[in-house]
Write a structure and sequence with these properties.
With 379 residues, this protein is of the alpha/beta class. The protein has two domains: 2-159, 3-Layer(aba) Sandwich (Rossmann fold); 171-366, 3-Layer(aba) Sandwich (Rossmann fold). It has 16 helices and 17 strands. The chain is elongated and about 70 Å long. The two termini are 19 Å apart.
Length: 379
């Protein structure tokens, strides 16, 4: 049984920082083990660009998975397609689990090369996709193998689709949508889709920076998604109206990531920060305003952090919004890697109606796009 999982988790120097994605696959794995399947897991980690990179090895993940399952997990680091690779799989006994080394060590994974997909599928009876977070990718381990094996959805994938379908089609209103993260170009479509439906659209992260830049503000060395400039300008007519405009912003040093100052937008524009400085979070007054917008909502959808959450000094807004949502009586839906890490770190994961393991996949699903990994299962 070949099972596509998403073990693309943040790794620290000595441990896995956030294992939510791993834990979400446990029900599927345990079900298969209980039914005496030979369970071979395939996943990616990071962006090794088709090369074998030691820091992106899944070996630490195999060890962590073994602890969660309370049973051994074999690790197959042999090259896919070689005799050694297949020999190790052949020796795997029913009810046992194996994890294959990072599938993105191969260029043919992203290319969805038929020969590579066929090599990966060889010797298996069935394929299960339990990786919703990569189901928007037309990759060999997501789409390609399903052409050579009977393919099914895993329990986690089914749960993702069931929950997200509700807010895609008919979310309870008033609806508030929170969009953060780095690139505005990947968020524009979902923002436009929810503008007619939502009472408020709250923005943070690079999405805010791009709108400010498009409006003529100088944003220093802040990250700007130049591919989304035209789309950002198209949203300016909603900025400060249905799209909540920040009141203040937190500026930091791009080299030291040290917090420098908090600036009032109206006073600081058109020059918000200088070269060597960047916008890394929305400020405390903005957080107060955003919290007010959450009051009375019946549904809140959140994708992407409001600041640079990897640095504690710039995680305040994200943490405050997470706590406010956790206290809310609204139906709350969250997705996106850094967002998941933040709420998990705060111990709030169980306080939300549903936490999606997908970032980009969640956004595309909510836009009504056909995800390749789901289309192939329907076929």
């Amino acid at each position: 049984m070949l099972v596509r999982v998403d073990f693309n988790v943040p790794l620290g120097s000595v441990r896995i920082v956030d294992d939510l994605k791993i834990r979400r696959t446990l029900d599927t794995i345990k079900y298969l083990v209980k039914n005496h399947a030979q369970v071979v897991l395939v996943s990616h980690l990071g962006r090794p660009s088709g090369k074998k990179v030691a820091k992106y090895s899944l070996r630490p993940v195999a060890k962590h998975l073994a602890k969660l399952l309370k049973r051994p997990v074999a690790f197959n680091q042999a090259k896919i397609g070689t005799k050694n690779f297949y020999d190790q799989i052949e020796k795997l006994k029913p009810g046992k689990v194996m994890l294959i080394e990072n599938v993105r060590f191969y260029n043919d994974e992203k290319k969805n090369a038929p020969a590579f997909a066929k090599s990966l599928a060889k010797g298996f009876d069935y394929f299960i996709n339990d990786a919703f977070a990569v189901s928007h990718r037309k990759h060999a381990s997501v789409v390609g193998v399903a052409k050579y094996l009977p393919a099914y959805a895993g329990l986690n994938l089914l749960m993702e689709v069931k929950n997200l379908f509700v807010i895609q089609k008919n979310p309870k209103r008033p609806l508030v949508v929170i969009i953060g993260g780095a690139k505005i170009s990947t968020k524009i479509s979902v923002i436009k889709q929810y503008l007619p439906k939502a009472k408020h659209v709250i923005l943070g992260g690079g999405v805010v920076t791009n709108l400010l830049w498009a409006s003529g503000c100088k944003v220093g060395s802040s990250m700007v998604d130049k591919g989304g400039v035209r789309a950002a300008k198209g949203l300016l007519k909603y900025f400060g109206k249905k799209i909540c405009k920040p009141v203040d912003l937190v500026i930091g040093d791009t080299k030291t990531f040290r917090k420098l100052k908090t600036v009032n937008i109206d006073e600081a524009c058109p020059v918000l920060c200088q070269k060597g400085q960047a916008i890394y979070d929305v400020g405390p007054e903005t957080v107060k305003e955003y919290k007010k917008r959450l009051q009375g909502a019946r549904t809140i959808i959140w994708n992407g952090p409001l600041g640079l959450v990897e640095v504690p000094a710039f995680s305040r807004a994200t943490n405050e919004i997470a706590r406010a949502m956790a206290r809310s009586r609204a139906k709350t839906y969250v997705g996106g890697g850094e967002t998941l890490m933040s709420i998990n770190r705060l111990g709030l994961t169980k306080k939300f109606t549903f936490v999606s393991t997908g970032g980009g996949a969640m956004l595309e699903f909510l836009q009504g796009k056909q995800l390749p990994g789901l289309i192939i299962l329907k076929k």
